[in-house]
Design a protein that fits this description.
It is a single chain. By secondary structure, this protein is an all-alpha fold. It has six helices and no strands. The chain starts with a helix and ends in an 11-residue tail after the last helix.
């Protein structure tokens, strides 16, 4: 290498060293003679990948990590139902049942008197539809807040089923009377309807033995078998 080039390289290196020292920078060592790599710069320490990741992100949810990270709290369970409201829903079914019974008795009286039999039979059919709706309401009711809830459901369902069977028997009787011109037709259907009515009365008494204490506890009126 020509002497002038060597001198120029040494002068340049010396100038750089002087600048670094004046600015307080880290001293570096020129490369060994004959090396083409230039100066060897000091290495900067690097964080490990795992440490960097744990500081920049939280758990797999992507939430920030660290002492201030909020703690997730499980949602509370379903709030129990209101027992007073559930008892009132049962009481409403009983009111509907009373209204159906009143309509039924009026229709039976008209068939017996052979007065407006066609309308009376239509009313008997309507009572059957109402009874089925009452059964559906009892089946769907939420009675979970009442300790006696499922017992009440079973007893009332039994009573309403017998009432529905009686209603259907009275429909058959009324149709027979209408078709026979108010003769003595349909007596077998009438007797079966009466039998189902007696079974319904017995089932209602069993229901009321459980229901009336519940009604009193929740400020609802006491009932008799005639009041269902």
């Amino acid at each position: 290498m020509p002497l002038t080039v060597i001198v120029a390289v040494l002068v340049l290196a010396g100038a750089v060293i002087a600048v670094v020292r004046m600015t307080g920078g880290t001293r570096f060592t020129p490369a060994s003679a004959g090396s083409t790599a230039g100066a060897a710069w000091p290495k900067i320490p690097r964080q490990s990948t795992s440490q960097s990741t744990s500081q920049s992100t939280g758990p797999s949810s992507g939430q920030p990590a660290g002492p201030g990270q909020p703690t997730q709290v499980a949602a509370p369970g379903a709030v129990p139902g209101d027992p007073r409201a559930q008892a009132a829903a049962v009481d409403a079914v009983l009111d509907a049942s009373v209204a159906s019974r009143t309509k039924l008795n009026a229709a039976i009286a008209r068939v017996d008197d052979c007065t407006a039999v066609e309308q009376a039979v239509a009313d008997l059919r309507a009572v059957g539809t109402e009874r089925q709706a009452q059964l559906d309401a009892v089946a769907a009711a939420d009675l979970s807040a009442l300790p006696e809830g499922e017992q009440l459901r079973g007893l009332l369902t039994d009573a309403l089923r017998h009432s529905l069977a009686a209603d259907r028997g009275f429909v058959l009787w009324g149709q027979a009377v209408q078709a026979g011109g108010c003769g003595g037709s349909g007596r077998a259907d009438y007797r079966e309807a009466q039998r189902q009515s007696r079974l319904a009365g017995d089932a209602k008494a069993r229901f009321l033995a459980v229901w009336n204490p519940v009604a009193a506890r929740h400020g609802l009126r006491d009932r008799s078998s005639a009041g269902i």
